[in-house]
Amino acid sequence: MRQHLEAQFPQCCTNCKRPFATLREYLLITEQVGSAMPYDVELGDWQPLEPLGTVTFANCPCGSTLVLSSDGMPLLQLWSLLNWARTETKKWGMTPKDLLNYLRDEITRQVLAAPASKP
Ligand SMILES: [Zn+2]
Q1: Considering the chain, what percentage of its residues have pLDDT values greater than 70?
Q2: CB distance 117 to 22 below 8 Å
Q3: Average pLDDT, the chain
Q4: Cα of 46 to ligand 1 centre, how many Å?
Q5: Could you tell me if residue 100 is inside a domain?
Q6: What is the 10 CA–ligand 1 centroid distance (Å)?
Q7: Tens digit of pLDDT for each residue in 24-48?
Q8: Would you state the pLDDT for residue 115?
Q9: Does residue 97 belong to any structural domain of this protein?
């Protein structure tokens, strides 16, 4: 999941064109907004053929809202993630949203704890 997110960089803000070279930079500069949304799972679909996706939102300093999503993730990989999530939520009595927010925090923590890879 972290690899999938990191593969979405570099990207830039669609509004102010501010570039984000890496996931780390993105996490440092933007501010997360609200809860992550596992759309398919919220609808009870754990093996979506046409996934709506899972997204998290963050605010660019310019005020524009940026989106990171599971779009483009291969179906099999997505299904195995969802399958894992289903097991975990049952095991811990968490909602899918809780689990996703936990994952998001954990990825943020790991990425920010890693040494910066400056060129
Ligand atoms: Zn911006």
Answers
A1: 97
A2: yes
A3: 92
A4: 34
A5: yes
A6: 14
A7: 999 999 999 999 999 999 999 999 9
A8: 75
A9: yes
Enumerate residues 6+ apart whose C-beta is below 8 A from 51.
39, 40, 70, 75, 78
Domain count along the chain = 1
Q: How far is the CA of 57 from the centre of ligand 1 (A)?
A: 13
Query: Phi, psi at residue 92, to the nearest 5°?
Result: -100, -5
- pLDDT, one tens digit per residue, over 9-24 is 999 999 999 999 999 9
Q: Is residue 92 part of a domain?
A: yes
Contact predicate 83/99, CB 8 Å: no
The burial of 55, by beta-carbon neighbours within 10 Å (0-12 exposed, 13-18 middle, 19 or more buried), is given as middle
Q: Could you list the residue range(s) of the whole structural domain that residue 18 is in?
A: 2-113
Q: What is the pLDDT of residues 56-78, one digit of tens each?
A: 999 999 999 999 999 899 999 99
15 C-alpha to ligand 1 centroid (Å): 5
Residue 119 covered by a domain: no
Please tell me the distance between residue 81's alpha carbon and the centre of ligand 1 in angstroms.
31
Ligand 1 geometric centre to CA of 106 (Å):
25
**Ligand 1 center to 62 CA (angstroms):** 4
* Distance from residue 111's CA to the centre of ligand 1 (Å): 21
Q: pLDDT digits over 88-101, tens only?
A: 999 999 999 999 99
